[in-house]
Here is the input.
Amino acid sequence: MKRVIVFLAVMFMTLSYGQEIKQVPQISVSGEGKVKVIPDQATVSVSIETKGNVAKEVKKENDEKTEAVLKLIKKMNLAPADYRTQRVSLNPQYDYEKKKTLYNATQTIEITVRDLNKYDELMEGLVSQGVNRIDNVVFQSSKMAQYESDARKLAMKEAKHKAEDYVSVLGQKVGKAMTISDNTQSYTPEPVYARFKTMTAMESDSAPRETLAVGEITIIANVSVNFILE
Here is the structure.
């Protein structure tokens, strides 16, 4: 009998506690923070592609062009950490019309340009040294972590301001936050797929040219917050 009484008492306390939790007045709101930034650097992915009939010769020619490209990069005083070989390949390709096997050698190099004033000079130099494919250009900011933090703070401020707007007509106040959910999607810079002129066309333009319109990148943070109402 005593066990039954104790069991019922525990159940009653548990139910009462659960009811008390549910009765805590709350408000759930979301907030968004946006920070617009002018990029100050770019990541460029370029490829040296060579085709031919003999695998050994194709690879040798591709290696020579790659060496010339790397010498140019070093000559422009880019830090060693700012460029790396991303991919190397040598593939046979069978030509069904000519009924013979051709070979395609490719080396892809990723370069970080921390001074956008060097962009045009670098691109023209790369093409002159053997780069025949510019895969993409991604504009970024060197202070991304700081701007992401700023966006998160703005999102929290908007969430609190929104909660205060809702409860202001009720004579209540926004209390402590019970839960905070970060709904921010990972920031991925959008690549700019580049097209470039032949060197003959480039050399015919003697005047300096501006070929970039970097614009702005927008960093967005999203949060959901549950506030206690007082």
User: Anything to note?
Assistant: The chain has five helices and eight strands. Residues 41-52+61-88+107-140 form a domain with the Alpha-Beta Plaits fold (CATH 3.30.70.260). The longest strand covers residues 100-113.
